[in-house]
Amino acid sequence: MAFLFFFSAVPIVQLLRMSVSDVGSATLNQQWPFVGPENYLEGFASGAMTDAIVRTVVVAAIVTGIGMALGLAAAIALRTTGRWSAIILAGMVFVWALPPVVNGSVWKFLFAEDGLVNTLVLLIPLRAEPIPFLYDATWALISVALVTTWAVIPFNALVFRAALLGISPEIFEAAALDGATRWQEIRHIMIPAARPTALVLLVLTIVYGFRSFDFIYVMTYGGPGTATNTLPFLGYLQAFSRYDFGLGASTSVIAVLLVVVLAVLYSRSILKEER
Question: What is the pTM of this model?
Answer without folding.
Answer: 0.89
